[in-house]
Here is the input.
Amino acid sequence: MQQLEALTREAIALAAKAPLEIEAARQMEICNACRYCEGFCAVFPAMTRRLSFDKVDIHYLANLCHNCGACLHACQYAPPHEFAVNVPRTMAQVRATTYEEFAWPPAFALAYRRNGLAISLATAAGIALFLAMVVAMRGSLSGAGLVGNFYAIFPHNLMVSMFGAVFAFALLALSMGASHFWRTQSQPYDSKLAKGSATEAIHDVLTLKYLDGGHGQGCNNADDSFTLWRRRFHHFTFYGFMLCFASTSVATLYHYLLNLHAPYALTSLPVLLGTAGGIGLLVGPAGLFVLNLRRHRMQMDTAQRPMDLGFIALLFLTSATGLLLLALRETAAMPLLLAVHLGVVLALFALLPYGKFAHAVYRAAALLKYAIEKRQPNRLQLGSD
Here is the structure.
């Protein structure tokens, strides 16, 4: 309590004018003295291993934070208290600086600030319009008699090279950013004690463990009430995306190994996987879109809302256009629908490294560091882990 009172109003006013990492460190020092939220998520046990917080620590804790909001609603020092502790919003703001600092190529860092809903939709519309013009010039806008043969519109090799190049660049950009982030975070550790860390981190990522509010009742979203819907909609989105990826992978094996070429029957494995994934990518993004609009402003960085909604919208449109294309693939509308669907997917891949998807990459790295760190001796002899 004495440590809390030592944070005078003058110091708080000075911190408010300081860089974001300094403000986040000020709040962490208050939390470290209080520790009421220690059982809520991984951020607070990791916090107890430190007495001070440098820039590396702050970026680690910020990406470990899942923005569930539970600590804000439990905090006795939250606004309008003079200490003004708002961990969810501050950590969200720090995460945005993480994405920019570790962006690759570095010149693309500002893309995070400009990657909003309007940009996402405009990019998808622009690419779709270009592809529709290509189809029109080839005289293929009438899909009569094509019987769902997408490759009659865009040859297989053309689609592979086009999407392969964009997706490969997205993976490279994300991998380079994550690698740079990890190099700044990694510290010497006992590899024997770290056994099982990767398995735990993967489990925490796949189950979204820290979106349960620390008590299994879920997150706060619009008010003080708890809800698990944010975690559920994230699961719909993630596993829907993975099912769609599995569908594409199986179709690739069919094409190259079994010499079975599209179009595939509605009962085939690629179509069944894609349909299930598409449904997940309708339900998940739609739910996240609504929750984001209803989320209390104190629990988020409102400046990032356009980026959040842009990524959600592209995921939803990818699924919606894909399912519509499947339903109408044997009609004359197929070529135009194919151009629209491919435009949305290309926009999604192109913007992937410079939008909301980045949080998954950096959060996974932070969870891996936490899983390793918690197995090492706590030299401060603080905390319960």
Notes: The chain is about 60% helix and 0% strand. The chain has a mean pLDDT of 89. Residues 156-185 form the longest helix (30 residues). The beta strands are 219-220, 226-227.
